[in-house]
């Protein structure tokens, strides 16, 4: 798997438009202590911002970018990063770039943000089934994709025009005509199967919780029935009845419901893989029909 990269996005928040005008990468360091890496990373960012300010470049942080492999980005770490950024930046975005998908002649670039309803639940760490039903929050309500418009300055456009090949076709056009689909399809199917296994494990975890909950409720009912019978006997003898709940009894200790966040993220990732496979399969059929027509004409 190729190394993933990430970096800071700089720009301006103007009205309803968030302009990303510059960026710089974060250093990648392995094998060092986490505290040292965080301290060095913070100093590096401050120094980069100072240098950019000196050359009159927009140095306002508006989010971050990160690369992904086959569209695998729906993780709890991504959500925590969003929250850390939004402590200081109300409207921040994350730009996701997939170099493998872009290598096939398609610009695989998307800008994401978290929905307000999901962020509120995540701050409270309350992902129980009851709370999710109250908020009417589904796995589709985690991320919100923001439309992206790419534009160049007049100087960059002029340089690109000078560098543009006189050939009517570009390398991206040829990449889109490649018939081989094995690497992309195999990896997507492999990751899809792994996600299905993870989702199955999450379902087993919830089934185990509900079995224990049903067993506990049955034990509580049996204990209450026994206590009520005992209290009837005590009342008949003129004695004070005993309380019908005993907080010291283990069967009255509430069971902690597992968080549904992981299952939501896994379901989101499964949907992403299915969309990629579906889209790529459709393009492959078009290529095959086109090649069949070319062979018939020849």
From TrEMBL:
UniProt keyword annotations, A-Z: Cytoplasm, Initiation factor, Protein biosynthesis
Pfam families from the UniProt entry: eIF3h_C (PF19445), JAB (PF01398)
Superkingdom to which the source organism belongs: Eukaryota
Statement: the UniProt record of this protein carries the keyword Protein transport: no
UniProt subcellular location: Cytoplasm
Domain MPN, residue spans: 1-118
GO biological process: formation of cytoplasmic translation initiation complex
UniProt keyword annotation of Protein biosynthesis present: yes
CC terms in the record's Gene Ontology section: eukaryotic 43S preinitiation complex; eukaryotic 48S preinitiation complex; eukaryotic translation initiation factor 3 complex
Gene Ontology terms, MF aspect: metallopeptidase activity; translation initiation factor activity
Listed InterPro entries: eIF3h, eIF3h_C, JAMM/MPN+_dom, JAMM_MPN+_peptidase_M67A, MPN
Role noted for this protein: Component of the eukaryotic translation initiation factor 3 (eIF-3) complex, which is involved in protein synthesis of a specialized repertoire of mRNAs and, together with other initiation factors, stimulates binding of mRNA and methionyl-tRNAi to the 40S ribosome. The eIF-3 complex specifically targets and initiates translation of a subset of mRNAs involved in cell proliferation.
Assembly with partners or alone: Component of the eukaryotic translation initiation factor 3 (eIF-3) complex.
PANTHER family named among the record's database cross-references: EUKARYOTIC TRANSLATION INITIATION FACTOR 3 -RELATED
Family: Belongs to the eIF-3 subunit H family.
Record's protein name: Eukaryotic translation initiation factor 3 subunit H
Source organism of this protein record: Ceratopteris richardii
Lineage of source species: Eukaryota, Viridiplantae, Streptophyta, Embryophyta, Tracheophyta
